[in-house]
Design goal:
Chain A is mainly beta. In chain A, 5% of the residues lie in helices and 35% in strands. Chain A has a single domain (2-145), classed as Immunoglobulins (Immunoglobulin-like), CATH 2.60.40. Chain B contains five helices and 32 strands. Classes of the chains: A mainly beta, B mainly beta. Chains A and B meet through loops of A and loops of B.
């Protein structure tokens, strides 16, 4: 019954991430984004990261994707070359290595996930505004707890 | 009962003088004339109850009865930043009553759920429930974030499972009642719903359902507790399903006309009562879920049924506690948390018969009853006794009697614990091999003593009342369901 509160919308916009993230060309003057992941309970599979702008957040394409091996005690991914602007991140741990965000037969998440600003919706993904952060000229750090 | 007039009369006559103490009875006698405060039955408990010996207050412990009664029910509803708004949404507390060597001990612990952790940290009830809305600050990563683990228990695979209905079982140590975490039968089935009313065959095979609107998962566990099989099935309608029943060969799913019509917060507000559509009863072959039949009976609402059985010609029979409408769950179970009584129609023990020709009937016994139970060693087999709670409607939302209905004789025997007791579900514990040769084991909340009591009755002489009663040191709120682990 609570399934409805966790509409598939929570997961659907998390894209299938290509095995190799496209290497971005370094934009002139763009800052580096470092994302630190906590809450990793098993060192298995990779953390799949998707970075969105406002336009892509609700079902569109991410502007960048990245992957990093899951390690207990935390993992960091560094993304360089993002153009100045406002972004938000969706991430999940691909525990079983199938490149997909795992869901049970009723569509509920079975793999840990998280969002930038550690934003968490009650029964769906957070709004772009809740997860949004700005990228300017200076390096930016984000902490995401996978849950 | 001592009436006020008689007391004044005898006091005056006995004393022979108009002394104040003789004219008016002591205050405690007036207090005894006011209905007991049933709100203790839905009060908050703030701490676990340490294991302690219960005091024998009546009778003596029956020879040969040894085992543990586990019970589960909500025991924390209110926090300063926001409270549960429905009886079904309090935090699950598992109670353990051990009977051994003529003595009884009790202990109780809250299930250490994610819900309880979030809410303790926020000092508010945040997570959504059946009738409690989600509040700002709730973190929902799966239905299990809101899992109250408050409805029943199942001993399975050497563990005690605390059951809810919209998420996973919670694993507990059956002795220390320590919470071990969620039960995940297979990683791809994490967070799938598992009803609080599994049906257990005499050999220990467990059947259960989990619901998501019209979709259902059918669980089958092997006698040792391992996952044997799952099937995904589609139901004809998105009825609210709390319980189902089973014969040796079939699962019997009552699809009442209380249907999830829309997503709402809380869930109960998305359920619509559509009596004109009647009640459907779906019968599914345990060995081949594609083999199904649908029977139709007039509209009713029900939470609970007893174990079904099947006659040689295929006729299926079972008992069910029905009300004309879902009034208790919508109104009374909400208001009782506020200490308010809303009188709603009494649940009546009724018989459902599903015949091979496709016809079906629903007949009331005329006995007000809930929490139907039976000899679980006869589940799926022909039998004639159903244990129940009764005497509802006496000024409080809870029962005050335990009874046994005999379907063969069409007779009912009950023991009235009196207005001071809130009576919880009683379980049938077999003693000999003959049906009826057994004990009824259950608990009441004694409002006068402000203590939870454990009782044993002889199933053959229920009206005689308990053969043994023990009183614990704690007054715990009324529970929903339990199980008895013999030995």
């Amino acid at each position: 019954m609570l399934r409805s509160l966790l509409a598939a919308a929570l997961i659907a916009p998390l894209p299938l991430i290509a095995p190799i993230a496209a290497a971005p060309a370094m934009a002139q003057g763009a800052a580096t984004l470092t994302i630190h992941f906590d809450g990793i309970e098993q060192a298995q599979g990779r953390i799949m990261v998707a970075i969105y702008d406002a336009e892509g957040w609700n079902g569109g394409a991410p502007v960048r994707v990245a992957m990093i091996d899951a390690k207990t005690g935390g993992a960091d991914v560094v993304v360089a070359g993002l153009a100045p602007g406002t972004y938000a991140v969706r991430a999940f741990q691909d525990v079983d290595g199938d490149m997909k965000f795992g869901t049970n037969p009723f569509g509920m998440p079975t793999e840990p996930f998280g969002f930038s600003n550690d934003a968490m919706g009650a029964g769906g993904p957070p709004s772009f505004d809740a997860a949004a952060f700005a990228i300017g000229d200076a390096p930016v750090a984000q902490n995401i707890t996978l849950r | 009962m001592l009436s006020r007039r008689n007391f004044l009369g005898s006091g005056l006559a006995g004393a022979g003088v108009l002394a104040g103490a003789a004219i008016l009875p002591p205050e405690k006698l007036y207090a005894a004339m006011v209905p007991a405060d049933w709100t203790l039955g839905a009060a908050d408990i703030d701490t676990d109850v340490a294991p302690h010996a219960m005091r024998l207050v009546a009778g003596r412990a029956p020879d040969g009865l040894k085992g543990v009664l586990y019970r589960n029910g909500p025991a924390k509803f209110r926090r300063p930043g926001g409270s549960a708004t429905h009886w079904f949404d309090g935090d699950g507390m598992v109670r353990r009553y051990a009977i051994d060597g003529g003595e009884a001990r009790m202990a109780a612990r809250f299930v250490d759920t994610e819900k309880r952790r979030q809410e303790a940290a926020a000092n508010a009830m945040l997570l959504p429930g059946f009738g409690t809305p989600v509040r700002e600050g709730a973190v929902m990563t799966s239905p299990d974030s809101a899992n109250a683990a408050n409805t029943s228990v199942l001993v399975s695979g050497g563990e005690l499972l605390a059951l809810w209905e919209a998420g996973s079982p919670y694993r507990m140590d059956p002795d220390a009642l320590e919470t071990r975490g969620l039960k995940t039968y297979r990683s791809d089935l994490a967070h799938m719903p598992f009803l609080a009313h599994p049906r257990v065959e005499p050999d220990g095979t467990v059947w259960n359902l989990g619901l998501a609107g019209k979709r259902a998962i059918l669980w089958k566990l092997a006698p040792g507790g391992a996952l044997a099989d799952t099937q995904l099935i589609e139901l004809p309608r998105a009825s609210y399903i709390h319980d189902f029943t089973a014969t040796a060969r079939h699962l019997v799913i009552v699809l009442q006309p209380w249907v999830l019509a829309r997503n709402a917060n809380p869930i109960i507000q998305g359920l619509e009562w559509l009596p004109e559509t009647g009640t459907q009863i779906l019968v599914i072959d345990k060995n081949d879920p594609t083999q199904r039949r649908i029977f139709e009976v007039p509209a009713f609402f029900a939470f609970h049924m007893d174990d079904a059985w099947e006659e040689a010609d295929g006729t299926i029979r079972f008992g069910i506690c029905t009300t004309p409408e879902p009034k208790f769950v919508i109104d009374e179970a909400r208001e009782l948390l506020l200490g308010r009584r809303v009188a709603t129609p009494l649940p009546m023990l009724s018989a459902i018969t599903l015949r091979p020709d496709g016809s079906a009937s629903l007949e009331s016994t005329g006995v007000a009853a809930e929490f139907p139970q039976n000899d679980r060693s006869r589940s799926g087999l022909k039998r004639s006794l159903t244990v129940h709670t009764g005497l509802y409607g006496h000024g409080c939302p809870f029962a005050r009697s335990v009874g046994v209905y005999d379907w063969a004789r069409q007779s009912n025997a009950e023991h009235d614990f009196g207005a001071d007791h809130l009576v919880e579900e009683f379980l049938y514990v077999p003693r000999g091999s003959e049906e009826g040769d057994g004990w009824l084991v259950g608990t009441t909340l004694n409002l006068a003593a402000r203590a939870t009591e454990l009782h044993v009755l002889d199933a053959r002489d229920v009206a005689a009342g308990p053969v043994a009663s023990w009183r614990g040191d704690a007054a715990l709120p009324v529970t929903f369901h339990g199980t008895f682990a013999a030995g």
